[in-house]
Amino acid sequence: MTQLNVVPFVSVDNMMKLVHAIGIEPMMVELADRIEDDFRRWPSFDKTPRIASHSDVGVIELMPTSDGQTYGFKYVNGHPTNMKRGLQTVTAFGVLADVATGYPVLLSEMTILTALRTAAMSALAARHLAPKGATTMALIGNGSQSEFQALAFRAICGIREVRLYDLSPDATAKCARNLAGSGLRVVPCPSAEEAIEGAQIITTVTADKQFATILSGNMIGPGVHINAVGGDCPGKTELARDILLRSDIFVEYPPQTRIEGEIQQLPPDHPVTELWQVITGAAPGRRDAGAITLFDSVGFAIEDFSALCYLREKLATLSFCEQLDMIADPDDPRDLYGMLLRAAPVVVKRA
Amino acid sequence: MTQLNVVPFVSVDNMMKLVHAIGIEPMMVELADRIEDDFRRWPSFDKTPRIASHSDVGVIELMPTSDGQTYGFKYVNGHPTNMKRGLQTVTAFGVLADVATGYPVLLSEMTILTALRTAAMSALAARHLAPKGATTMALIGNGSQSEFQALAFRAICGIREVRLYDLSPDATAKCARNLAGSGLRVVPCPSAEEAIEGAQIITTVTADKQFATILSGNMIGPGVHINAVGGDCPGKTELARDILLRSDIFVEYPPQTRIEGEIQQLPPDHPVTELWQVITGAAPGRRDAGAITLFDSVGFAIEDFSALCYLREKLATLSFCEQLDMIADPDDPRDLYGMLLRAAPVVVKRA
After folding, report:
1. Is B241 a domain residue?
2. pLDDT tens readout for residues A85-132
3. Distances from the Cα of A283 to the Cαs of A126, A225, A272, A274, in angstroms?
4. pLDDT, tens digit, for every residue of B37-77?
5. Per the CB < 8 Å rule, is A338 touching B174?
6. What is the distance in angstroms between the CA of the first residue and the CA of the last residue of chain B?
């Protein structure tokens, strides 16, 4: 029997080892498949909009869900100003627990895992929504998430060319450098307009906590798929409202996306389609070649649950983890106090 | 500058060492004072009822709060049937984070810390509500939390005698054994009726997830203080409804207590007093010597926040913690992918 008082912990170092043992792209392919499987059984999950604690400079969120057997949650922050202080905009960690006992069974860093699952989720949505034969993606916003997006779309959607733009040329240079040798044709562009030229997929992944207009209406022609990743909290959007009005909009979990997504710009009854219904075939995806499809992505708890369950399975053979003494587990479960008492240091009396 | 990628972690073993370094009773006295200080500045906290995920056998909850500078949350489960499987009914861990950056700054076991803060909270409430000169407490339910309650009331309220009752004589024997040498007069009783004889304070701390009647109306005379600890989720109560109707009821956070506390038996507009207002003097506590005061305790996030902040301060001098590599922190904050890429194992080519 496993020791219930210890919880497997995946550190940042171990996560990086695990990712390399699997391979970055293979891992995102597997994550996308895993998320897709869980989206197929969407009704079997407990769902709630994430619980946000906002401040002037950012947000800290808890994202719980459960499928009745396993419970999971992620802690994640979003602090756009962190970057100027040399810190990550988004950091995260997550936990799985056994619903039957309430005991945690996994603790993991999730900054890296979130980067992977977010990109896998975007590519999964595009696999169902983007125009057939898409080979070129514009990537607007070249920060922490950008390379993951590029590689996920390469591995999952067959993208061959990424066209990069960022307000900061340094960010674009960094992204291009990191993607050299990836097999992608990488085209740094001096403007968003040039980045979207010839792109069938447009990914926006900027981080400012404000109503920004990364894409304006006249930039978007028919037949594209927009993957809007950056807007993910109240007051933070990336797209002009008229793009939304021309698009077929697909979301993860409407009660959360209405609060956090691009559609916070629209009336609360504006029609949207839940992505899980497209995946199961219950709702149509792309209507025709000329439609504009928009995945208004904010990130939902089930995606993290999928990623943590995937991780837990991988740890069975790739044991990149430590054991944390996190759960007090007295021999007699009623005797927590006795356990504490018996742990008292022995006082050695002098002779 | 502290390394931001590492998070101090207090294991169960280190928590027990820390508790013994401070002393169990002194620590509960300090925790009660710390909670009292935070209750005095109640309006400065973000508050939300805890986020519960219920199953047939128990509940898993997240309890977040923030004072605008520090964010904290606790993960806690409640599984009454765990005991039969040799597991703890309640286990917990908690996290503090810096609101300005969103980075976690502390991870700690909280099974033991919750046991201490729950008892400290009960005694703190009794310090404000119990009849003056109370020296005898009935303790109904002699499980994990019972000894902590007894010692907190001894240290904080001057209780000299505890009268024990539990459905299980083994539990009572265990509690009595653990309290031997504590300075308390310990009286095991064969029934709840006998346990409350002569008691000015009645503490109920049972764990069944059902509407139970640990105390019925005819058992409760005037002038007592009832500390109802065990009822803490929907469908789980300990007191007969008519006791509630005869009592002045004090609660932590009404929106949560209405869902989880004894008062779920009452209409949603039944008057209750928020304890923090008694502490600040804004609301009256005990009206007169004959009143029945009831602290309908369910446990609120601010109490855990207080406990975690207290722990964090103690770690400055009592360094009972490890450092966890939990936060991915690349040199260039936009270059998470580059950090991952550079962590790839070096492949040595054969000559």
Report:
1. yes
2. 989 888 999 999 999 999 999 999 999 999 999 999 999 999 999 999
3. 15, 17, 11, 8
4. 999 999 999 999 889 999 999 999 999 999 999 999 999 99
5. yes
6. 45
Same domain, A274 and A248: yes
| pLDDT given for residue A1 in this prediction | 42
Please give the single-letter amino acid code of residue A207: A
Count of structural domains within chain B: 2
Bridge partner residues of A345 (DSSP)? none
- Chain B, 115 to 134: residues with Cβ < 8 Å from chain A are 115
Residue whose structure tokens are 């240290």: B155
| Residue A119 falls inside a structural domain | no
Question: What is the pLDDT, as a whole number, of residue B2?
Answer: 58
Distances from the Cα of B95 to the Cα of A93, B144, B316, angstroms = 11, 23, 17
Q: Which residues of B fall within a CB distance of 8 Å from A329?
A: 12, 87-88
Q: DSSP strand E in A58-134: where? A: 59-66, 70-78, 92-98, 104-109
Q: Judge whether B271 lies within some domain.
A: yes
Q: Are B302 and B274 in contact (CB under 8 A)?
A: no
What three-state secondary structure class fits B215? strand
Chain A hits for B66, CB-CB cut-off 8 Å, are 53, 55, 60
Residue position matching structure tokens 């002098």? A350
CB-based burial of residue B13 (10 Å sphere; 0-12 exposed, 13-18 middle, 19+ buried)? middle
Measured distance CA(A195)–CA(A175) in Å, rounded: 14
Claim: this prediction has a pTM higher than 0.90: yes
CA distances from A105 to A328, B64, B181, B300 (A): 14, 21, 38, 25
User: Do both B57 and B178 map to the same domain?
Assistant: no
Domain that holds residue B51: 6-112+303-342
Q: What is the ipTM of this complex?
A: 0.92
- Average pLDDT in the B272-301 region? 97
The catalytically annotated residue of B13, B38, B46, B232 is: B232
Is residue B65 located within the same domain as residue B168?
Answer: no
